[in-house]
User: Fold these one by one.
Assistant:
Number 1:
Amino acid sequence: MDPRLKEIETRKAEIRAELEKNDSKTDLDALEKELRSLNTEKAQIEKREQIMKGLNEGKLEGRQLPNPLVPKSKEQRNFENMPREDLLKTEEYRGAFFKSLLGKTMTDNEKRAFESANSGAEKRSYDSSTTAVIPTATSDILFQKMVKVAPLINEITLLRVAGNVKFAVQGTRDDAALHAENAAITPAGDTLVYVELGGYDITKVIRISKTIQTMAISAFEGWLTDMLADDIAVKIEDFTINGTGSSQPNGVEKAVTWTVGTNNVQFTKGGSPTYDNIVDLISYLPARYTGNAKFLCNNKFLYGMLAKIKDDNKRPILVQDFSNPIAQRVLGFPVLVSDKVVDNTLYFGDFKQMVGNLAQDVTVEMSTASGFLNRSVDFLGSALYDCDVALTDAFCKLSEAAGA
């Protein structure tokens, strides 16, 4: 028995004795209040003892209650059985990823999350060399920055399918036919066009002083995504426009066969394009593509040539798109700008008919080996990308004529 129970019973007996004296000076309210308090305390003690007895006899199942003083992030989580896509979204993995790159010590939960997410990868030392998939939140930030650097990435049909992919689009499409009564119906000659994409490794090495390891995780995340977005996005955009298709992605310039008078308008060598040239270019594009059609050129062509073209009423054909402060339109069609378009060239078409695939999530490797003597750290960012044009008649081009 709890010693306190004996004290409570003794005090209750004393209170009973005082009440029996029937003394007018006795404070009945105070005694009643004290008696209620003693009874409540006694009930709590007896309840606790009953629970303890049940545990000792195996009649009650004990369970560990969460400690309200311990943050939820410190609680054990079942990372080992968590789907990989969910694991990459956790704060534990994000913290582990950046600590691995910065050579900082991980918590137990972060280490478990990191090892579970990259269990299929080659085992490497955390402070020497690390390869890991970028966390989901960071990957989203990186993609947003890539689109800002290279807007064309957001205009094409971009897939994010692991490994090789075969993508089908509508090819030949016959009109519906009038059916004569009792006559046999002939199936339409509609076809599908397939785009088969693999993956070409696009890499960028960034070398920086080892003092970067003193950066806060949030600051380092911003720096790393800025660097990778600038370099990887620009190279992806370059391949999308100029890729030869030979041991590299197939860009719009090489994927389409350009024929003057059909899908190619040329202006005089050493001269400038005219209003009629631009109108002819638009006329070459089949009407089914004009709903998504856009122009694409470099900044030099945009302001050095397009901005100078005027209609018969002396109005510039390049106008500001007031729905977007940084966008322009030519004869109602939006204009995309890329430094990777060669000079004196203007593309016009539906860029959704260009299909690209990021066959593998962007990865980052860190190594201190190559920069040991210089106290520097190397970061290697890489992405697997391929692209090709699905329907070549969705693109037209204006270019300078060849000649002396």
Note: The longest strand covers residues 354-367.
Number 2:
Amino acid sequence: MDSSYSSEKFSAAPFIKEIGRGKKGARSMSRDDSRQLYAAMLDGRVSDLELGAVILALRIKGESVDEIAGFLDAAEASFDPIPSPPGEYAPVVIPSYNGSRKLANLTPLLAILLARQGVPVLVHGVTRDPGRVTTAEIFQELGIPFSQDRQQPADQFASRLPAFMPIESLAPRLARLLELRRVLGVRNSTHTLVKIMQPFAGPALRLVSYTHPEYLAMLTSYFTTAAPAERGDAFLMRGTEGEVVANSRRAQQIEWFHGGVRTVVVEKQEPVDELPSSPQDRDASGTAQWICSVLNGKEPIPEAIAEQVRHCLDVSRRLRANTLVRHANDNHRS
């Protein structure tokens, strides 16, 4: 965790003056200014009045790549990273902050299928969301416990199970800013940050989704120009009701970002004529029962999800192999 935080109040007025001039008149902050501002927000050093002004100004203006990069620098410095586990695969990070309303939430199926192959899978997100079925609720129905500290995921990985960590346990300062949605009625930049942050000490594969075209452009630019290559790779796709699991009815395009290079690994597909098997009851209990049927071989794995799993396995294995080569070269030079 970054030890540079102080208890001194932070004046956000100079930044609000730049970003608060409306969609056409506002100017974006530099990466360093964005890091300083967001660090102060995380630390509770920005007054409530200024905090609300910053959130609404960014909501109207939209975040630039430098702003998101600076915010993420501060966000990842605000909590202790999870130790990188050994093994053949680099960790896969699955954010789950949306859940589902209409379609079954199959994020837990994706996580379990990867974990069964020996991939360390960390799912982080909210535990409850009124009107939605969350991944956490389905994990509870499946008997998969929550991880409350940074050592517990290792036990789940060793058992070839995914680890789910509530955002309150993983990054409590970010969780506090997420909760502001209930006060202000609108999302803020933190909702984007939790979907792109990388919680491990070493490289990992992040699964990232977007919901609006402007976020596709911004995130593509971030991963090609501003994301630190040493933090690992990312898969970017349009979300299935906001979740990063492939839509079993119509597979989304998946783009792989590695070292600033963008590669399309899955092309967008047309809707299938014959609907694949899916849970009849889409609540947490019914979804969990259907997932068990898939894992037991009684129901087929939706092909779009099976393909997503194959690409995750391939890139996760490559990422770990490349990391081992770099470490060997560094040790040889030293």
Note: The chain has 15 helices and seven strands.
Number 3:
Amino acid sequence: MVVAPLDLLDLDSLLTDEERDVRALVRRVTDDRVRPSVAQWYEDGAAPVRELALEFGKLGLLGMHLEGYGCAGASAVAYGIACMELEAADSGVRSLVSVQGSLAMYAIWRYGSEEQKQRWLPGMAAGELIGCFGLTEPDHGSDPANMSTRARRDGDDWVLNGGKMWITNAPLADVAVIWARADEGVVGFAVPTDTPGFSAREIKHKMSLRASSTGSISLDDVRVPAAFQLPSAAGLKAPLSCLTEARFGIVWGALGAARECLAVALDYATTRSQFGRPLAGFQLTQAKLADMALELQKGFLLALHLGRRRDETGALRPEQVSVGKLNNVREAIKIARQCRTILGGNGISGEYPVMRHANNLESVLTYEGTSEIHQLVIGQKLTGLDAFAG
């Protein structure tokens, strides 16, 4: 009997009926709305982000793990499974949901005032309003502690100056969560993007995440009232906690891209013949398939463990999420590349999703902390020594 990769260890039995229902729902919407068009979106370098946001909002996928303000209040595992199914269609589509819910919405939900939550979160949960998260800068990617963006007080207002780079959803956003340095340390703001002095520019010529809107943000004497400051965000720990929140979804999402590549490679290897037999009948091909299935299942068990721990304890330690992000993205990109070899020349064709996933995973490998950053996070926890500056 032939089994699917994740059926090898009967991992489906570890999920609840509700979690399987979430999987079926998200798989259905990606089958109907994303997969038929995503190759063309990737080719064009543009996706209908606002239309997708509205559809995902109707399904309760935006900020689905948050409570109140129109959010679904789903479990961590259910959210993770949704991310896995979204990224099985395309990493850029999952990024839309992750940035909206786990970065922009979470920052406001966790650190915002009640007025800010009421103003932004219901519309964002419905997909009517788009958010972005402005932390990364042109000269400060992995080192946000030295960000150049500044916030200074001027009477009852704040004035923001600086720039952000590689910001998902920025060209379309209605609200931008902006992090800046002030005399008292790192502070955060929920800034309407129609504020004078705020501008966002689409980043073109990407070779990865082409079905995602990515931009740079310019802040030129952007004056905002004190009411726009996130009152509970004090210090760098606030934006870093948002990154930890988003990384959890990536732990699951990367598995979706890997699973999709492996499923395509399995189908191709069993139907494509060379030297008078199916590719899957050769020992070298079977060895590749076995190793990839093994890593996929190990990654799933790791993601599920982290999800169950979060649902039980309410939180995960940053180094625990780093373990998941480091392992699962690293293994996912290896799987995508290996699957490309099984497809041979067809592996680079847009008619198959494998090269698209491999290219997308290059970005996933970098954002929300590079592999090297996560190695250092884990190493610091193991040794008690900070090697970030060494």
Note: The chain is about 50% helix and 15% strand.
Number 4:
Amino acid sequence: MNINSPYITYALMATVAILLILAIRLEIRLRRMLRGNRVKDFEGTVVSALKDIEKLAEAKLEIEKEIQNIKDKVRRNIQTAGTVRFNPFEDAGGNQSFASAFLDDHGDGVVISSLYSRDKVSVFAKPIKKMKSDYELSEEEKEAMRIAWEKNKE
């Protein structure tokens, strides 16, 4: 075959045309991808995307810290309550007296008791720290704490 053959010339022209079409298609795709971006080239788009990813990672860390703070605060809030009604005096009718315990996840909170008699009502509040109080607790108050604590563990 001769190098000056028209077939080789046609083959070379066809190859150049195919390469030119592929280059144009690639250019069109790149322009579509870069459309809407403030950057003019592919490298700038990648750098911009990496900066956005870094900002998102920082925001994610801040959000995770805030979620942990919220979880810690929620654990310190009253989670459950337990109430026991009782009759402390023989001459008073019904179970009008009560003891209610309000506890958080750590067993901290308060017990509020009300003793009812015919001529007066007395109300007491006792702070609770880790399921214990510096004040003497009645059996009913202890039972209210136990009920609240068991509800908390459900």
Note: The beta strands are 80-86, 97-103, 109-116, 121-128.
